[in-house]
Specification:
Radius of gyration: 19 Å
Helix content: 25-40%
Number of strands: 8
CATH topology: Pnp Oxidase, Chain A
Number of helices: 5
Distance between the termini: 27 Å
CATH class: Mainly Beta
Strand content: 35-45%
CATH superfamily: Electron Transport, Fmn-binding Protein, Chain A
Order of helices and strands: HEEEHEEHHHEEE
CATH architecture: Roll
Largest sheet: 6 strands, antiparallel, barrel
Shape: elongated
Bound molecules: flavin mononucleotide
Number of domains: 1
Length: 193
């Protein structure tokens, strides 16, 4: 049986086929316990029956907010095909074994860059040179060696509870429908655009 997330995978593929260079980034929205919202783009690395996976740096704002309040929303806007998908749900941190598994799937250059910037992610730096010098030092330090899993690397899985699909149409009324999950059972409902 098709899962409600299968259509997202299809829409991603169709957006790429329509010419989008990279349809993987999406907006991740979080909210503090004090009801302060924040949103930013992240790359959705994998979509499967269990949910959507994304990766980030331990200690940054989104991690603090997600650990404090695991309710989150991922929003895709597919510009070329004029489609939106909103996935609401709860996030859970990945296990260390899962982090290790995904870390190993990155090219060496990405692992080096992550090792360089992750400890200071989104914090003020005096200038870009500080990081460029650190990058040279890390390249030297790990020359000829496997880059170990950065202690700052961490992933989350968003487990969907509601998924809304919105396809804008100009020939007729737009197509809008949602899937809602309750006690493990999904139901589909058409919505007015
Ligand atoms: C195209 C694009 C992809 C990005 N992907 C990620 C990502 O996968 N993970 C991440 O932590 N930040 C990613 N960022 C940076 C975030 O948008 C954000 O600026 C940064 O993580 C700090 O967010 P925070 O302060 O809310 O934690 C990306 C930015 C862009 C423009």
């Amino acid at each position: 049986m098709l899962s409600p997330l299968d259509l997202l995978t299809t829409w991603l593929a169709e957006e790429q086929s329509a010419g989008a260079p990279n349809a993987k980034p999406a907006v991740l929205s979080t909210c503090t316990k004090d009801n302060v919202p924040h949103a930013r783009v992240v790359v959705i690395r994998e979509i499967n029956d269990k949910g959507l996976l994304f990766f980030t740096q331990r200690g940054n704002r989104k991690v603090r907010e997600l650990l404090d309040n695991p309710q989150a929303v991922i929003t895709y806007w597919f510009e070329l095909l004029q489609r939106q998908v909103i996935i609401e749900g709860t996030v859970v941190p990945l296990s260390e074994a899962e982090n290790e598994h995904y870390w190993k799937s990155y090219p060496r250059e990405s692992q080096l860059r992550f090792t360089c910037y992750a400890p200071t992610s989104a914090q003020p730096i005096t200038n870009k040179e500080v990081l460029e010098n650190k990058m040279k030092q890390i390249e030297h330090e790990f020359k000829g060696q496997v880059i170990p899993l950065s202690p700052f690397y961490c992933g989350f899985r968003l487990r969907p509870e509601r998924i809304m699909y919105y396809a804008i149409r100009t020939d007729a009324l737009s197509d809008v429908f949602e899937y809602r999950q309750s006690d493990g059972v999904w139901t589909m409902q058409w919505l007015s655009p």
